[in-house]
# Entry
Amino acid sequence: MLDLERQYQPLRQELLEAMERVLDSRQFILGDAVSAFEQAAAAQLGVGHTVGCSSGTDALWLALAAAGLGPGDPVITTPFSFFASVSAIIRAGARPLLADIDPVTCNLAPEAVEAKLDSRRGASARAILAVHLYGQCADFTAFSQIAGEHNLMLIEDAAQAWGAAWNGKRAGGLGDVAAFSFYPTKNLSAAGDAGMVTTNSDDLAERARMLRQHGMRRRYHHDEIGWNARMDGFQGAILSVKLKHIAGWNEARRVVAGRYHALFTAAGLAEAGPYPGRGVILPQEVPGAQHVWHQYVIRISRRDELRAFLSERRIGSEVYYPVPLHLQEALRYLGYREGDFPEAERAAREVLALPMFPELREDEQQAVVAGIADFLS
Ligand SMILES: Cc1ncc(COP(=O)(O)O)c(C=O)c1O
# Structure
């Protein structure tokens, strides 16, 4: 699925030197290396503020808490994401209100959000948390309009979308506040857990900074109950090295995605979506989106059989995500049932992520497509 070795080898020396500087400085938590990364990241994304933190999950919690979302506040989000998109809402004390996805992008569907708001007259939501799933931005034209009409905060879960854009504007600056993850498999990745909050609001940034340090503005004076959610110096140093390469890596991912598209089409396997028949539904970059192809996710019938078939040929694949969030055991108490979000449930049965990373070679992609062709024949 992912060979980090190919990214690591050419950067090895530079990464070791960056780590050495952190050791020499003995600034292991936050410190200059994290500040330098925060500044470079803000410049690259074109956002006013960046707050480095301990993980994408913590970034989501910090974003929600800094935005003042807490007990009793309904936050509309998707049932088709990594668990943290919803668990962070619950950690903040707020209440997730789920709405179904668009079958083409698998992102939160604006129509489903509107329907939810209409059907809940009197108990309106306070925020929308939209996930840029697989590296493609959710429809922020529609969400900005809905947020304006209903006076909602707009939060981005941009964990999978460093460098993605919507109508030319970078993820991280599309809503009021955003959360990124630098988990080692992400397109911009640390050597451990790390994350970041981004915002153009001075107040939100100041609050997120305070909350990541146990609610302290002054040492050992706690204004609010925050948490320990700081970024390590090593992660800041490593991320600064990789930040210089991410534009090129994202471009290489586009080339890999284009090659898959051409190979599936040439093999006669691609069919029109959004739902699969006997062939393969290829992922699409929708108008307005600049996809970073964090994942290349096809839809296919008999998905689990195909996965087993590919695995016998030592071809990696992964399912993001096999169980929609409303059907997760831990979230059963929210009261949702099977059938509540048919698009998310169907996607959970049909999606399959294929090997995708900047250094993936054409012969390897040919082997993946040939494997799928054999399975379908
Ligand atoms: C959409 C999404 N949200 C949140 C997270 C949480 O990030 P982390 O693993 O860094 O806590 C992830 C990644 O794992 C993710 O993919």
